[in-house]
Amino acid sequence: MKNITITTLGYWGIIPELYGFLNPKKFNLYKNSSSLDQIDKLREINKISPPDEIWFVGTSGSFGVKHTNLIKKWAEDIGIKTVFRFFKPKNIDDPQTSKECNYMSDLIYRVVYNASRECKGGQFILSLAGGRKTMSADLQEAANIFGCDCVIHITSYDLDDKTLKDSLKSFDFRSPFPKTTADLVTPIVSFTKIEKSSILYQPHMVEKVKSFDFDKISNENILPHSTKFYNLIEEEKRKARNFIYNYSSSIFGEKRSSNFTALYSLHPAKIEKLKMYKVGKSLKNRDKDLKILTRIPKTELHCHLGGVLDPIDMIKISLSQKKEIELYSKENIEYKRFLKEVSNLVTANDLDGLKRLIPDQKRLRTQIDGVKEPFNVLGFLSCFEGKEKLLEKYIFNDLTDEKNYFKIGINKYESLGDLQGSGMLQNEKTIRETVKILKSKVKEHNVRYLELRCSPANYTRGGLSKESVYKFIKEELEKDKFCKYSIIFIASRHGKEEGIKSHVDLASKIIDFENRGKVQLRGFDVAGDEKAKSPKQLRESFMPIMEECIKITTHAGETVEVESIWEAVYHLNAERIGHGLKLEQDKKLLHHILDRKIAIELCPSSNYQIVGYKDFIENRKDKIYPLTHYFNEGLKITINTDNPGISRTNFTKEFLKASQMVEGGISLWDIFTFVRNGVKASFLDYDNRRELLRDIEKEIVDIIDGDIILDE
Ligand SMILES: [Zn+2]
Questions:
Q1: Could you give the number of structural domains in the chain?
Q2: 618-644 residue pLDDT tens
Q3: What pLDDT digit, counting tens, does each position of 258-312 carry?
Q4: Which of 449, 496, 548, 610 is the most exposed place for a label (fewest CB within 10 A)?
Q5: 651 C-alpha vs ligand 1 centroid, how far in Å?
Q6: pLDDT value of position 242
Q7: For residue 496, how far is its CA from the centre of ligand 1 (angstroms)?
Q8: Distance 426 CA to ligand 1 centre (A)
Q9: Other beta carbons less than 10 A from residue 252's beta carbon
């Protein structure tokens, strides 16, 4: 093991200056410097240790006998045993032609390469101390290829300072610099450890040129002219450039919408791994896939507050108001009798009896006269304490069997939510509890941004004002520090005209452009029966929304024909389309949507359950889900849950379902694209969107860096 330092040489004093930095115990040249502390720190950080050998590279005229003798004499006087070796070419005093310059580059590569091997693990330092600029550049280039422990410069503050020059020239370097000089000459470390270039430093090229005519190293070495090594390295550089060019055009040139920028700088093998790992490929891997997917930070752009609860959540909310229910029972004998009857049927597991008693779940809301909403529903649900399965069966009937929950149509699907949504969200406690449950699911599935759709004007039958409904939802969401939220109001097509107007009025009233970072209303949605009212008819009522520049998304092309998407785009200036399943029927419109970067909010489970698509894993035969088609066309696809409670899904499972509906599955790489699309298509303002993009990007890179995703 040997410590070797390579340096170029301007004048002989470079050597004591360099040595004074490398071995202060022997020769403390900078002792009087005002920046001695910093110099010591540099030594410490770079673990500088005394050199066993110092190698010089230069032109034929670089170190004449005079300078060489001065160095040798100085070393003798100081009493150091460092070996000095000189390397120069034959007859090139002042390289002018490109051929001569290439000889010099070749020589420097040879010297650096051989020194890096001679070190055998000792400290290897390069010093750019002076001499020709091209030589410093070659030395720096050699460091980038062969690696070194650090690169040192000895700098003078003012090289043109004649007094400094003269004082250095006349200085004998047998004692430390006087303070004035020491303050003007400072060693700096411009690069700490440089690793060998894994692309340019190829073992095979070293074999090819063997020892590079370097068999015998003596103290004075005049090396023959050669460009063999130089040419080899140039060839490797050319190949590397080609590789990088081809590689980047292969990943940046893909038509599919692009991914997080930081992911493109991952090692190619890692990118390949992310592209090859398909989730949901078989039921066998389900647990592992879910575990991986849960960890990925997510966005959710299409989620209805009215559909987030599962039967367990619904019972939980009803029980949180047990006291109020009991109070009602005392006041209203009919209510009490009704709940008793339900309780008896529940205890007896009498599903048919329950269905006979309440055949229409929607009617339950007003079951007993004089009972304020939502207490008919809450009272009913509270009877199911400990009987979650029975409630599930009551709500879903034969659809509790996943095999039947397929292609059931929009009306039947919506009726599955009759006991929640506006059937339930009619008092403050229920609203707050529902949002709390949503927040816990958000955290469980690492959702980083969620846009929540709701209809405050529909939650006023229990006596609340729509303003306070909005306030409760907003307040509960604001308490969450884990995830960012926006609120979207839903205008229902099949609702009365006043319903739309009521939400439009509320929106104009509460929109708050001053507090952009806060949870607030950021968008408007048109939902419900697509046949009931076309976007064209809606345009008029939506004018105030557009005047406020509130963004619009529209449920379109889910169950009715593609015209509804055209209308959403042209009449409502929709910036996103909910579902958009029929878009594949109209190539012109698809390309227009692509050009305008309008995002598509796909909801795989809901689409599967309502419309019906092929599932490659469940072996369900039907038409092909348009996801792959849209994705290949470059459309901005996002994956969402729609109504996680009704669809019996969650934020993680939706990605798995999406993958099952795609032939060959979806890769992790593509899933990151969907997440990024979610941020890009979000209704957040520009600054907050950028911040979110950065945060999620960092989290994803951290996950991949930890390699937890792929190696688990
Ligand atoms: Zn929806």
A1: 2
A2: 889 999 999 999 999 999 999 999 999
A3: 889 888 877 777 888 899 899 988 788 899 999 999 999 999 999 999 999 999 9
A4: 496
A5: 15
A6: 74
A7: 19
A8: 21
A9: 10
Instruction: State the distance from the centre of ligand 1 to the C-alpha of 185, rounded, in angstroms.
Output: 71
The answer to whether 286 and 656 are in contact (CB under 8 A) is yes
Report how far ligand 1's centroid is from the alpha carbon of 293 (Å): 23
Distance, C-alpha 185 to centroid of its chain = 46
Cα of 406 to ligand 1 centre, how many Å?
17
Distance 643 CA to ligand 1 centre (A): 7
**Residue 13 and residue 138 in one domain:** yes
Distance 639 CA to ligand 1 centre (A): 12
CA 578 – ligand 1 centroid, Å? 7
Please say whether the beta carbons of 43 and 21 come within 8 A: yes
Mean pLDDT confidence for 324-343 = 96
Which secondary structure element, helix H or strand E, spans residue 73, and what is its range? helix 65-78
Which of 361, 348, 347 lies closest to 397 in space, CA to CA? 361
What phi, psi does 5 have (nearest 5°)?
Answer: -120, 130
Choose the weakest-confidence range: 278-287, 358-367, 376-385, 472-481.
Answer: 278-287
Mean pLDDT of the chain: 88
Provide ipTM, 2 decimals: 0.99
d(CA 183, CA 180): 5
What average pLDDT does the segment 450-477 reach? 96
Q: What token pair was written down for 558?
A: 């889910």
Q: Is residue 503 assigned to a domain? A: no
For 643-688, what is each residue's pLDDT tens digit? 999 999 999 999 999 999 999 999 999 999 999 999 999 999 999 9
432 burial via Cβ count (<10 Å: 0-12, 13-18, 19+): middle
The strand ranges marked E within 284-419 are: 298-304
Calculate how far, in angstroms, residue 226's C-alpha sits from the geometric centre of ligand 1: 72
- Are 330 and 224 found together in one domain? no
Q: Is the pLDDT score of 528 beyond 90? A: no
Structural domain boundaries, residue 396: 310-419
Place of tokens 């650096």: 112
User: In this structure, which amino acid lies at residue 31?
Assistant: K
486 inside domain: no
